[in-house]
Give the backbone structure.
Amino acid sequence: MIHKKSRDEIKRMRHAGHIVALVHKKMKEVIEPGISTKELDNIAYNIIKGERAVPTFLGYHGFPGSICASINEQVVHGIPNENITVKEGDIISIDVGATYAGMVGDGAWTYPVGKVSDDVQRLLKTTEEALFAGIAQMKAGNVLDDISGAVEDVANREKLGIVRQYGGHGVGHEMHEDPFLFNYRVGDKTLIKPNMAIAIEPMLNLGCDDVVVADDEWTVSTKDSKPSAHFEHTVLATEDEPLIITQLLKE
Ligand code: MG
């Protein structure tokens, strides 16, 4: 079941989401050829700590970073490393979580490094579009399958692979709460109610759906080594329009 958040929980969660958005704002500024994923991790760690929050990922099932940094064919869960740098034409997905006063915000974005190919540009645009198509369905009275289907339709239109083994999730006191949210229709009729929060996160590939996990037991890559993109927002259902939690607060 999905927990319905109290007003106070939502307030704290929005602050957590604000911190996630601060990290992404900085990532957009600093990602350039030559920067290492460990440098990006340090920047994210310092922002989160400076906001009196906790990096949710650090130590999660033993994960050694505050961000996941996944380059090109890597889909999710790339481990920050001082020897791994990005170069012109790469894409890098940064996934980050912040826990503020016990509540979690979780958000990911895939950034181009300099100029990328037309196909990769289409992958980024489409995956972002799929995220927002999913968010638009996060409305009281809809069911989870409405979100999944909206993501699937955008991916299918551009003939992109849809990662099947990973997906969105409830979020609140913990980063991963029920329910699991698929990025394609599975017939889940779970009703969306006001004050439920879900991390919606399409992971789409330029090639096939299939993914493999590396020997480090974390890094997930596409099986055919074609590029993959990942966009994620934590979203709250309301009585009215969906509220994106992982965005900057006004003041
Ligand atoms: Mg997530």
Observations:
- Residues 7-30 form the longest helix (24 residues).
